[in-house]
Amino acid sequence: MSPNTKPFEIRARLLDQAESILNRRYHSEYDKIRLLLDKNLIDPKNVIWPVPPSTDDVLVEAEKLYKFIQTK
């Protein structure tokens, strides 16, 4: 980021990045379960599906990222 990057731009980027991280994690878990189901390796009755990330989840993840960049 350039020295002229405005605080709201940094926050927006961190929110986008946090959402992307959580969505990738969610879809990875979802795809893994679908694959196991398709191969009949798990019982569909026992599946616990992942929950899509909430707005609060995104904010918590963005805060972690923000704390990281503050310390470097």
Question: Any overview of this molecule?
Answer:
The chain has 72 residues and is mostly helical. It has one domain. It has 2 helices and no strands. The protein has helices at residues 7-38, 55-71. α1 crosses α2 (55-71). The longest helix has 32 residues, at 7-38. It is elongated. The model has no long low-confidence stretch (mean pLDDT 94).
List strands and helices in order, with pairings.
Blueprint: H1 7-38, H2 55-71
Helix pairs in contact: 1-2
Q: Radius of gyration, rounded? A: 17 Å
| Poorly predicted segments | none
SSE string, helices as H and strands as E: HH
Number of strands: 0
Biggest beta sheet attributes = none
Net shape: elongated
The end-to-end span amounts to 13 Å
Total helices: the number is 2
Strand content: under 5%
Please, how many domains?
A: 1
Structural class: mainly alpha
Percent range of helical residues: 55-70%
Mean pLDDT: 94
Keywords:
mainly alpha, 0% strand, 72 residues, elongated
Task: Describe this structure in a few short sentences.
By secondary structure, the chain is mainly alpha-helical.
